[in-house]
User: Which sequence fits this backbone?
């Protein structure tokens, strides 16, 4: 009986040690939940939002960063993809049908073997076959709109003009991630939703950290106001520091909300 | 000798015929359901619409949360997880034991040493109770799947219904051969009868292996589906679905791992009997049994990392994404836990061998070297244990200058780990070599040359492994980093095979220092056997989790999406807790198996109970 108890205690201790090490000896990483199936409102989207959506898909549902990252060296980095597109299209190894950067990037996602970057082909294929899957099928199954969003993102990070168009066709694909929020109805709602009053004196708000906007329409035109919201560092108001206003409102506001806000601010005279 | 050869030739031909008939049956019956043109298509090559027009099978179901029945108070996933894992543990055990029982029986027949026959019988006796538990747990798993995951199960049954039917038939064959093999052990003794008995053992192994191959097809289909189109519509070719991309890699890995696992479990049985034994004779018997079990476990443990590596490489070849999720993604830290477990396995197996040298009076000659072996194996373990990227706070990152340690970071990459594991395996083989020769004095005239050749072989082998690891790991680009592993493995295998061959000839007809004193081992050595069994059990559970987990939110990868509330991938701590609970239940059941095996041999003599 004593032997039995000793053996049981020893076994339990061993199992306890392994369980303890797994719980406390290594970092507990919570894997991301499975991608949700939602619908998105493309019609109300600005290009900045579209680029932001592309970035989100690039690192999320598209699982692009799994291979295209600086650590593993398993797939080429894509930050310059949009800028080298013309060079690739002229390469004798290119086997596709694209004629411009947008088509080339799209082709590289749905038919990756048409051009394999040297050193990144499947083993033994002499760089004629890519290990990358067709992202429009299988487990990734990106829709046309999602692929276009990634193209927009890649053009944006490449520092070239974003020429891909936001698809206008309604997306019925159930696998599309999205803007689940209903558009805000008035400029006051926009100001309240995005907490503009935390810094600015505008509408009924009395923020003091940013410029007073109660008469901004008399000093600035609509283009200036739009630019100031989308890219706050482009024109700094006197006495205010760089990066003091969030630069991601372009990725958060719907196009209709942005225009409504610009109209409202322009009317404050 | 000729008689033995003829025997193996005849049963070999019989088995080949049986397998060919089985495969042919699958192909011919499957092929009749669809046109030949469709059968030639590969997964994903046909569009769903055209397939639908030609196939009699429905596409894969698109499920919603409502399609998963729930029972209040019961977690569906954990229930299926535990049932599957417990079934697998027992199945691995009952599949492995007949393999080495067959070999031990054959050794007994060849040497005419009855002790082997008795030991083989005792091994199979232990697995008899485990056999019925395997079946019960298999039934529990099937019921759990039907209750909690009816649609995915139905989909798999649509594709594998035919193989499931054969599976059930094979189960009868396995049961019939197992019971005849076990209960007929002392009936089928001597001459022709013994050959009949051995043939039964072979049939038992053939049936068990075929069962495993069929079950493996179902699970590998879920990882690398084949024989279906992009919509999941089955083309009717059962063999295509069975012979999917990951089927053979899993078959190989499970076969080797089962033997290692089975060896470790019977080793634990022998260790328990040794510790409980009250006579020197019983201690000697169970010491010998434990040694044999450990030998079996180590023999399978040595090639196991290679089989695992082959499986991982094939997963990567099938899907780069799946491969990266496995090795570099959310599961990457799991391999640090695995390193701890494999390190434990190697250290406990080696420690048992070193303790076992106490049985020999000639072992003193080699004892001074043991500490060096221990140092090398521990260092190799530490290299394997070193993570690549550290998860740090901002402050720690700043202090370290990045997510990698300046000196230890390079040890985190795969070439370093491959080098470490190869060195660990070579030194374990060296441990065994020292153990084997501890009680022997070579009488071959070329013994000095033989020893020098062996020493040179080990030095050259380790140097080559180190060179390959360092050169390819740090001085070539990414593509060649992993490619170095193949010559490393070949070096390891060559060193082990050639040195074992030299040893075999050098010590043929060798003088023994003194008779081996079985039973003269410290009690702590037996705990090394328990450690081996518990670590193996836990490791199997952990690797089972990762094998299944890399499918992430898919029942069948890219075909049937998991939309249940349990579709998320659990964290490693959560998985470890489930595995631990499973391991404790398994150990409790194994103790019951051991106990049942023990009481089957006890005869009470109640006085005054029976008439006369």
Assistant:
């Amino acid at each position: 009986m004593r032997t039995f108890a000793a053996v049981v205690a020893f076994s339990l201790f061993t199992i306890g040690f392994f369980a303890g090490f797994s719980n406390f000896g290594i970092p507990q990483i919570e894997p991301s939940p499975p991608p949700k199936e939602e619908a998105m409102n493309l019609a109300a989207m600005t290009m900045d939002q579209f680029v932001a959506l592309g970035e989100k898909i690039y690192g999320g549902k598209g699982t692009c960063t799994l291979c295209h990252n600086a650590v593993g060296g398993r797939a080429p980095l894509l930050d310059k993809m949009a800028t080298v597109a013309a060079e690739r299209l002229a390469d004798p190894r290119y086997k596709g049908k694209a004629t411009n950067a947008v088509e080339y990037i799209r082709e590289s996602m749905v038919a990756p073997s048409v051009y394999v970057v040297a050193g990144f082909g499947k083993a033994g294929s002499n760089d004629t076959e890519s290990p990358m899957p067709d992202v429009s099928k299988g487990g990734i199954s990106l829709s046309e709109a999602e692929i276009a969003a990634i193209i927009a993102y890649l053009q944006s990070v490449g520092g070239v003009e974003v020429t891909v168009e936001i698809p206008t066709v309604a997306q019925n694909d159930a696998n599309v991630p999205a803007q689940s929020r209903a558009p805000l109805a008035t400029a006051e709602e926009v100001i309240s939703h995005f907490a503009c009053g935390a810094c600015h004196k505008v509408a009924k708000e009395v923020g003091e950290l940013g410029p007073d906007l109660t008469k901004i329409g008399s000093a600035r035109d609509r283009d200036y106001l739009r630019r100031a919201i989308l890219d706050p560092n482009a024109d700094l108001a006197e006495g205010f520091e760089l990066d003091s206003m969030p630069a991601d409102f372009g990725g958060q506001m719907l196009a209709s909300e942005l225009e409504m806000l610009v109209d409202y601010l322009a009317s404050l005279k | 000798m000729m008689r033995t050869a003829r025997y193996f030739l005849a049963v070999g031909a019989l088995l080949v015929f049986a397998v060919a008939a089985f495969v042919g049956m699958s192909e011919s019956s499957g092929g009749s359901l669809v046109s030949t043109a469709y059968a030639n298509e590969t997964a994903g090559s046909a569009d769903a619409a055209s397939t639908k027009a030609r196939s009699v099978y429905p596409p894969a179901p698109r499920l919603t949360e409502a399609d998963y029945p729930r029972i209040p108070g019961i977690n569906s996933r954990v229930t299926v997880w535990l049932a599957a894992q417990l079934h697998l543990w027992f199945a691995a055990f009952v599949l492995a034991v007949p393999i080495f029982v067959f070999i031990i029986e054959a050794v007994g027949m060849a040497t005419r040493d009855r002790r082997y026959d008795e030991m083989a019988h005792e091994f199979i006796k232990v697995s008899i109770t485990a056999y019925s538990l395997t079946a019960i747990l298999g039934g529990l798993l099937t019921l759990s799947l039907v209750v909690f995951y009816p649609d995915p199960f139905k989909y798999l049954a649509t594709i594998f219904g035919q193989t499931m039917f054969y599976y059930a038939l094979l189960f009868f064959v396995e049961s019939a051969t197992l019971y005849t093999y076990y209960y007929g052990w002392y009936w089928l003794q001597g001459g022709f009868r013994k050959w009949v008995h051995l043939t039964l053992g072979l049939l038992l192994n053939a049936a068990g292996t075929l069962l495993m191959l069929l079950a493996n097809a179902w699970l590998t289909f879920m990882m690398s589906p084949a024989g279906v189109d992009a919509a999941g519509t089955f083309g009717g070719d059962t063999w295509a679905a069975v012979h999917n991309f990951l089927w053979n890699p899993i078959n190989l890995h499970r076969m080797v791992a089962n033997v290692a696992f089975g060896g470790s479990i019977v080793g634990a049985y022998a260790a328990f009997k040794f510790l409980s034994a009250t006579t020197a004779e019983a201690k000697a018997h169970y010491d010998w049994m434990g040694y044999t079990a450990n030998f079996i476990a180590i023999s399978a443990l040595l090639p196991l990392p290679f089989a695992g590596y082959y499986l991982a490489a094939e997963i990567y070849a099938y899907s780069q994404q799946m491969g990266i999720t496995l090795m570099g993604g959310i599961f990457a830290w799991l391999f640090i836990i695995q390193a701890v477990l494999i390190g434990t396995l190697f250290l406990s197996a080696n420690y048992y061998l070193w303790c076992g040298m106490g049985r020999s009076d000639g072992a003193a000659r080699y004892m001074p070297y043991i500490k060096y072996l221990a140092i090398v194996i521990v260092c190799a373990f530490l290299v394997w244990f070193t993570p690549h990227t550290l998860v740090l706070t901002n402050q720690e990152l700043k202090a370290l200058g990045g997510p990698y340690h300046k000196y230890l970071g390079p040890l985190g990459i795969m070439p370093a780990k491959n080098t470490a594991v190869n060195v660990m395996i070579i030194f374990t083989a060296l441990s065994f070599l020292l153990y084997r020769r501890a009680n022997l004095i070579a009488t071959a005239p070329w013994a000095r040359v033989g020893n020098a050749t062996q020493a040179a072989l080990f030095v050259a082998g380790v140097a080559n492994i180190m060179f390959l690891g360092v050169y390819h790991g740090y001085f070539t680009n990414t593509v060649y980093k992993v490619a170095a592993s193949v010559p490393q493995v070949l070096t390891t295998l060559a060193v082990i095979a050639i040195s074992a061959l030299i040893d075999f000839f050098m010590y043929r007809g060798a003088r023994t220092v003194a008779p081996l004193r079985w039973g003269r081992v410290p009690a702590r050595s037996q705990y090394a056997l328990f450690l081996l069994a518990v670590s193996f059990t836990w490791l199997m559970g952990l690797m089972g989790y990762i094998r299944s987990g890399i499918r992430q939110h898919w029942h069948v990868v890219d075909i049937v999406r998991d939309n249940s509330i349990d579709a998320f991938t659990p964290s490693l701590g959560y998985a470890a807790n489930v595995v631990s609970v499973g391991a404790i239940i398994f150990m409790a059941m194994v103790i019951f198996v051991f106990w049942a095996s023990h009481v089957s041999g006890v005869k009470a003599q109640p006085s005054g109970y029976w008439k006369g």
Q: What stands out?
A: The CA atoms of residues 184 and 197 of chain B lie 8 Å apart.
